[in-house]
User: What shape does this take?
Amino acid sequence: MRTVLVVAAAVAVLGAGGKMAAAARADVTVRPDTVVQDTLGKAIFSGKGTCFACHGVDGKGTPLAPDLTDSTWLHISGTVASIDSLIKAGVAQPKEAALPMLPRAGVTLTDAEVAAVARYVHSLSQRGGQSERLAGSR
Assistant: This one.
């Protein structure tokens, strides 16, 4: 089963009384657990996980490591599970990168932290690197 893109409901402030109304697209399922996971994954990607050092702060790649925002996967199928496995195992012989990727990026990451990063990286590829939307696993 596919998880629908997760987007925040648009919130509009109506009138001088500060009343708020939420407007959400009918074809969108908002999953708070996915939003939290994506936010945590981004924080780890951009900080403790050091992923940004090689893949860039936006995940679009650098000469050291490939773009994670496109639909091309060099070593895996691109599912959340395959991304999780790759992060845990690393890439000893990269096909296009200048350097190998150490298991868990060479830092101490728990399985839960790896899972959060995997979901975040997957979401990057699903939305082409657009950081204003959040996406869940498919």
Notes: The first strand starts at residue 10 and ends at 14.
